[in-house]
Fold Divalent metal cation transporter.
Amino acid sequence: MSKLKILLKNLGPGLLFASMAIGTSHLVLSTKAGAQYGWVMVIPIILANILKYPFFEFGIRYTAVTEKSLVQGYLNLGKKYLWIYALVTIVSTFTILAALYVVTAGLFMNLFKVSNISVEMVALCLFIFISAILIIGRYKFLENSLKAVISILFVALLITTVLVIQKGAVPGAETYQRPEIFNEVGILFLIGLMGWMPTAVEASGWVSLWSMENLKTMKEKPTLKLALQEFNVGYFLTALLAVFFLIIGWMTLYGTGTELSGSAVVFADQVVSLFTVHIGNWAYILIAVAAFATMFSTCMTAHDAVSRVSLDVLEKLFPQVQAFRSKHAFAIAVLLMASINWVVITGFGGNMANLVALATFVSFVMAPLIGWMNLKTVLSKDVAQEFRPKKGLQFLTYLGMVFLSLFALYYCWILIF
C-alpha cells in the first residue's frame, strides 16, 4: 500500500479538527477581515495558524505516544492543571456551541427561505438532529460522513474563490477609508480573529480524545510520524480555507463600506447575496453549499468534542462517580450540551455577535496558559525522550505564548485605560 493510501485511510483526528475549525472563525471572522481591512489581514491569519500550531500538535503527539488523553496528561502533572482546563471547558460549554448553532440556524433560514419561525426554534431543531446523529452514529459515522462533507466544502469553496478572483475586486467608493487596525476597535477585532483562528486552543484536548477514539477503530496502532502527518493535512487545509474566505470578503466587499450585521439571519443573507450580486445568480448554489457545509460540519464536530471532553474531565476529577463511565454517559452528555446551549441562545436573543465576542475573547486570553500546559505535558516523564518535540518546535511554542500574552495584556490595558 502506498504512503498516500495509508495516509488517506488513517484520516481521522486531523479531518475532524479541520471540520471543527473551519467554522465561525472562517465564515464570519475571515470574511469580515477581508471585507473591512483588505488583504493585509492575511498576515494575522497566517501568524495565528503558525504560532498556535504546536498547541494542537502536542495533543496528537501525547496521545499517539501514550495512548492516553491530554486531559489525563494534565491530571498526571497535578490536579490543579486539570481544574484550570475544567474552568476553560465550562466557558466553552456555555459559549462555543451556542455561537456555532445560531450562525448555522441563520444560514439554514436563508437557504430555505424560512421566515415564519424564529432562529431559536431552528437552532433547537438542529440541536435535536445533530444530537441524534452523534448518539446513534458515534465516532466512526462522524469521521466517515465528514470525509464527504469536507470534500464538498473544499471543492465548492475553491471554485467560488477562483470565480471571485477572475471577476476581480468590486469597485470601492471613492470616499472609502480603511478602518484603523491599531485602535481600540481594530485591536478588539484582531483579538476575536486570532483568538479563534484556527480555533480555540483548548481544542487541543478535543483532538487528543478523537485520537483515542480513532485508535479504537484501528487494527494496528499508527506510528507517531503517521499520526502527525494525518493531523498536518487537516491543519494545512484549515489555514488554506481561512485565506479563501479572506479573499472572498476582500474581493466582494472591501471598499464598499458595507456593514456586516451581528444578527445571524441578516449576516447569512449578506454573505450569500453578495456572491449573486458580484458573480451572478448561478453562483448562489456554490456559496450556499460551502457556507452551510462549513457551519453544519463544525456544529457536529464541536458538539461531539465538547461532550467528550466534558465527560473526560468529570471522569478524571470525580473517579468515584460511576455514572460518568456508564455506556449511556456520552448520550447524556450530548443531550445536556444541546440543552444548555439552547438556553444560552434564547437568552442572547439569537444575536451571534455577543456570543462570538465572549467565546473568542476567553479563548484568546487562555491560549498562552493552555499552550504552556500542553508543552509541560509532552515534556513530562509520560513521553519518552525520542518522542518529545524538537527544540525548534519548543521555541515556536514559547514564541506563540509570548506573542499571545503580550496581545492579551495590551487588550487589558485598553480596557483599564
